[in-house]
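Memo to structure team: turn this sequence into structure tokens by end of day. - J.P.
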Amino acid sequence: MQPLPHPRCPPLRPRALVLGLLRTDDDALGAALHALAATPELLEAAARVVVVDRGAAPAAPVVEAALLPAGLVHTVRAPAADRATALAAALREAVTEPGAEAVLLLDDVAVSDTDALLEAARRAQASTASDVVGLTASTAPRPAPATWWGAVLPLDAVRAVGFTAPEAGDLALAELVLRAEAAGFRPDVVRAPAPLPAAAPVEALLLALVHAPTGMRSRVLAAGLARDLLDLLAFRTDVVAERHRRIRTLLRGPDAPPVREPVLRGARAGLPADAVRLRVRLLLAWPGLRRAYRLGAVERSSAEAWQRRLAPLQVAAEPTRGARGTALRRPARLRLRAWSTSRRGTSAA
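Reply from structure team:
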């Protein structure tokens, strides 16, 4: 018998993908760029490689040493930017790239398996059932968006629901994916070796507040109270005090002005009674906070809102071809209440 031919993977569409890399350090960025340079199929599909440079010193020497094709890499300087801001900077560059259809967002440390990146890009391009494809660690117990270390998002989804939510912190990508899912862009997952992302408990609380079923609030708040008590028993009072400060900020709502609070240290940093009172306040305020965060999410994450926040960022490379193209126009339907329902008539409201 003749051996069956090995099925060939369908080629990626050329110049259809924007790769957004978030810099963590020089070594990781250099390794990521060299891995991309050694993957010609991924480079052929790439319209642009956007490096969001969050370091104190520019990463220009590392980028130049990668020997990528001339004009392919586009560096955005964002010193000390948080994750939500860095992801939004990459999305801003992606939506203005002519001809691009999707964006692949990930940290530079996650570019260890380029075959997984190719698989995610192919699945996003070819599948009619999966519009957003996430990359999660092989060891993740549950492939929820909070465990994703990268994702391929169609630019139609980005234009429909906006960029990242500024208050989502390290879970900004997960929050964006859940908002896209609520608008009808269904997710899929590719598993590959990678570190599991870490997020602060308050960011996980915000994600549950906005996207989890309402009946989950008692379980989420009980888990937070147990974490506080364990930290207090271990004398990690400063950790509890910082968590309580961020929870009080959460309770003020998404549009409240910042308030300077007194710094409490030592025994006054967080007592069990404080933890209980905060959780009771959250339990009572949960429905109102849920509405407030959800109703303003599209406006806070819109391209226009992020354009104002990103104005100070510097571009340390030649402008993209998209800078000379048409400007992003946000559809009028995004003025509607709660999530956009333009794709498949679904809603998370």
